Amino acid sequence: MDYAKAHSVTLWCAVLAKANRGVAKLLPKQMTQLQFRLLEQLTLPESGHVRPVRVARLLVLKPSDVDEAVAVLADQGLVRPCEDGCIELTRAGRERTMELTKRLNVFFALCVGGLADEERAVLADLLRRAFSLPGSYYASGSRAGESVGVFDARRGLAATAMLHGAVLVAIKKATSLSFTDFRFLLELYPKRRTATRMLRARDVVAFLRTGRAYVTTASVRLEEQGYLVRVPDDRDARGILFKLTPQGMLCVQDVADDLYAVLVSMFGEAVEERAVQRALKHLLELEDAALDELGELSW
């Protein structure tokens, strides 16, 4: 894997991870993204009274996953199973979905609000490409142009869920690492023609936007698995630096090559365009600012 591809994969993974983090902050702790997407789908006119298998098809999910989500949401009084086998929102479910959608719309608006018109056009084109893939809810002729230029909760979640699912498949194909653990290793992979890349714990915390406790436990686990080593920091007697082992380098290369192929399959030649790289870098900065601002908002 060359350095340009490594940089591109790192950028895409960071954008995806921070979008997911923002959504996780706004959803109730007991509610998954899948459950919320199901609720929001039921607010649409064509899905107000629908069979779970139809929802699975619209959201490109496994029917068993939808059935499990329906059971959980029904126990919470947000979804009502009907005698004809269909499901629909309860009044409480509709009110809750509207409240959460409003919050998520604020987050996605913060993420894209500072983009220049050209950057928004780039992002809209990426969404169009992703939503044109076979199986997407937006792939049908009547909805094909619906997503262009619109960056709300439903489309934002659909795009991140689609990309996240593809990324997880690529990671699990080569390793048992979680997405966050892989990003830890990916940040240690050289992005320039240097012999090694070493990071301090505080740098990893900043890049991944995780707690210090995660970095501490993950570094021990990844070291035990042979992916990285902790070495003394020559500039700080009490400090520790992380760097990849040869095994870690090979792991990142294998997974990142697969991830790059996934990106190309979804977005075509746009993955390599400088305009896309610039737009994603700016989007990443705006996501960081949005995550900081979320903590100051009162709902």
From TrEMBL:
GO annotation, biological process: response to stress
InterPro entries documented for this protein: MarR/SlyA-like, WH-like_DNA-bd_sf, WH_DNA-bd_sf
Taxonomy, superkingdom: Bacteria
Signal peptide: none
Recorded GO MF terms: DNA-binding transcription factor activity
Gene3D superfamilies membership: Winged helix-like DNA-binding domain superfamily/Winged helix DNA-binding domain
PANTHER family noted in UniProt: HTH-TYPE TRANSCRIPTIONAL REPRESSOR YETL, TRANSCRIPTIONAL REGULATOR, MARR FAMILY
Name of this chain's protein: MarR family transcriptional regulator
Protein species of origin: Adlercreutzia equolifaciens
